[in-house]
Task: structure prediction
Amino acid sequence: MENLDKASNFLDRVDGGPRSPNAVDRRMVTLTAPASAAAEQYRTLYYRIERLRDLKTLKVVALTSAVPGEGKTLTAVNLALTAARANPDRRVLLVDADMRRGQVASCLGIRFWPGLAELLADECQASDAVRRFKSTRLMVMPSGKPPEEPTQMLASARMRQLLKALREGFEEIYVDLPPALPFADASILGAQADGVVVVVRANVTSQKNVRLALEHLKGMPFIGCVLNGAQPDAAPYLKLY
Ligand SMILES: Nc1ncnc2c1ncn2[C@@H]1O[C@H](COP(=O)(O)OP(=O)(O)OP(=O)(O)O)[C@@H](O)[C@H]1O
Ligand SMILES: [Mg+2]
Result:
């Protein structure tokens, strides 16, 4: 697994807490605590990806993991918020492509529809599905209402056309995917991305599952791995490695 450290990063546990449905989850530290060490880690991750951009086109960066609950959404949202802040001249989009249980909208405290599902079903316009997030420069396409056949929708020609159109409209697109092992969705969309990042929950995801996920994603443009240290007893703000 030597290639795992191409863009490896270690993200600390970030504390949440109760909130109202319209409020931003406090774990979106790049927004709620931009001066924190945790937010700095997302900036480091972002600049690592940015350095890779000198070597290859990385317009569409997709995030997945082996199994559910490893921190894909938290990482994708913080990364996209960081990207939107970093380069005022670039248009940045976050797409929630987890059509089974998309959580991007809930993390940001925004409405989850209309979004990707409605756009793919031709039930709304792109301008309704893609919305600016509050006063930031980040544009967000939430997942929409869970469709009956998410894999089929993601594998459709319409989805390919949509990604092509989005590539025209944005300089950076971050895609939050479902986990790779239980569903085909991640490999279908991962193949259409320029770079795939695999999130690994430190001390929780087994090595076997990480290996299996990487096997599932064979042939994908894998660019690196993020170790997400979401351990209740983890020391705060561990160093990057
Ligand atoms: N670094 C972290 N610090 C604190 N909590 C975390 C961290 N990473 C993840 N969590 C929490 O763990 C849970 C799962 O995280 P998240 O939703 O980002 O994972 P996911 O991989 O997107 O899950 P799913 O597969 O269900 O989409 C959430 O409650 C999230 O806030
Ligand atoms: Mg998720």
Remarks:
- The chain has one domain: 9-231.
- Residues 9-231 form a domain with the Rossmann fold fold (CATH 3.40.50.300).
